[in-house]
């Protein structure tokens, strides 16, 4: 049975559960459930603190886990990213009172408060900056106001938390993060159960970002139309009863669908339809 670590709370938890549900797996009904066996799919889910997931996976006791790239790197655990999942996107940045820190060199001699001590200590060492790091569990934006540090390093998504605390970003992002699937470093990458799990999640990612587009076009414009909708491999072309026309079916990116429909219409295509994809295997 495949053993999978899933975040039990925080920003990763809800979207991870939704993605697993869309991939056809049973998910827990109550947020207090810690373990769930899904016998039909031959998997067992362990709901763990997001910060602990890389450690469990690196120990080899669990086969696979969903966590944040930033949490994986911060843990220093021997686990590696195998599939980015596109949710819980954030950047990890330094911030300070306006006018106090403009370049990384200005951090020298200062104290940085963070919940991600592993990432920050490594970044400072890599850049050769001699600054102190103080570990706090959360709400680090307040550390500057309360005099515990002059700088913070934290997750930034919209920037609202920084603005509310009267802070501004200092320097370039330390890293860009999103939810990722992780495995123990060096684990057999070809195990059939793991491959099936990854294919299911990839299917969800594709279903979320593509729609199926169908349209009719005069045969003489087919090549131009196909250039607009090349599909993932190649579009399906079917004859229509009226021999001057053909029907085309192709997958297109959801974000580009409206522009492509306009361009196809201008080319003379008609009966242009898009339909959602619920699940797929590529
Ligand atoms: N506001 C946010 N937007 C997007 N991703 C976020 C946000 N806050 C945290 N994350 C991501 O969530 C993961 C951290 O999960 P974790 O559960 O520890 O913290 P949290 O979501 O801040 O929840 P909490 O602080 O309530 O425990 C990291 O990968 C981080 O990048
Ligand atoms: O840029 P924003 O959209 O404001 O998001 C970033 C904030 O979200 C997270 O905080 P959370 O609410 O999880 O509190 P925490 O600091 O206790 O983790 C993170 O630690 C930042 O504070
Ligand atoms: Mg948080």
Automatic annotation (TrEMBL):
It is an enzyme of class 2 (transferase). One of its GO terms (molecular function) is ATP binding. Keywords: Amino-acid biosynthesis, ATP-binding, Cytoplasm, Glycosyltransferase, Histidine biosynthesis, Magnesium, Metal-binding, Nucleotide-binding, Transferase. Coiled coil: none annotated. GO terms for cellular component: cytoplasm. GO terms for biological process: L-histidine biosynthetic process. It catalyses: 1-(5-phospho-beta-D-ribosyl)-ATP + diphosphate = 5-phospho-alpha-D-ribose 1-diphosphate + ATP. Its EC number is 2.4.2.17. Pathway: Amino-acid biosynthesis; L-histidine biosynthesis; L-histidine from 5-phospho-alpha-D-ribose 1-diphosphate: step 1/9. Residues 49-203 form the ATP phosphoribosyltransferase catalytic domain. Its main location: cytoplasm. InterPro entries: ATP-PRT_HisG_long, ATP_PRibTrfase_cat, ATP_PRibTrfase_HisG, HisG_C, N-reg_PII-like_a/b, N-reg_PII/ATP_PRibTrfase_C. The keyword Metal-binding applies. CDD domains: PBP2_HisGL1. It is found in: Cytoplasm. Residues 207-278 form the Histidine biosynthesis HisG C-terminal domain. Its cofactor is Mg(2+). Belongs to the ATP phosphoribosyltransferase family. Long subfamily. This is ATP phosphoribosyltransferase. It comes from Streptomyces qinglanensis. The lineage of its organism: Bacteria, Bacillati, Actinomycetota, Actinomycetes, Kitasatosporales.
């Amino acid at each position: 049975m495949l053993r999978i670590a899933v975040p039990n709370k925080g920003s990763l938890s809800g979207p991870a559960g939704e993605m697993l549900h869309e991939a056809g797996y049973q998910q827990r009904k109550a947020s207090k459930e810690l373990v769930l066996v899904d016998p039909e799919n031959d998997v067992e889910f362990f709901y763990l603190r997001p910060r602990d997931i890389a450690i469990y996976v690196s120990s080899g006791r669990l086969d696979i886990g969903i966590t944040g790239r930033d949490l994986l790197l911060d843990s220093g655990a021997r686990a590696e990213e195998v599939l980015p999942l596109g949710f819980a996107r954030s950047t990890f940045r330094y911030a300070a009172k306006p006018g106090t820190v403009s370049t990384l060199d200005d951090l020298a001699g200062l104290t940085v408060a963070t919940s991600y001590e592993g990432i920050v200590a490594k970044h400072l060492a890599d850049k050769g900056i001699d600054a102190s790091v103080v570990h706090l569990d959360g709400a680090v934006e307040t550390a500057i106001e309360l005099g515990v540090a002059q700088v913070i390093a934290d997750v930034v998504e919209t920037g609202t938390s920084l603005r509310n605390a009267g802070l501004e970003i200092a320097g370039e992002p330390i890293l860009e993060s999103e939810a990722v699937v992780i495995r123990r470093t060096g684990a057999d990458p070809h195990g059939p159960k793991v491959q099936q799990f990854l294919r299911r999640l990839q299917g969800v990612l594709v279903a979320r970002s593509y729609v199926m587009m169908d349209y009719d076009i005069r045969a003489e414009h087919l090549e131009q139309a196909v250039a607009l909708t090349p599909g993932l491999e190649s579009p399906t072309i079917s004859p229509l009863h009226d021999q001057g026309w053909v029907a085309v079916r192709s997958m297109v990116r959801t974000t580009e669908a409206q522009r492509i429909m306009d361009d196809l219409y201008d080319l003379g295509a008609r009966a242009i339809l898009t339909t959602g994809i619920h699940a797929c295997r590529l």
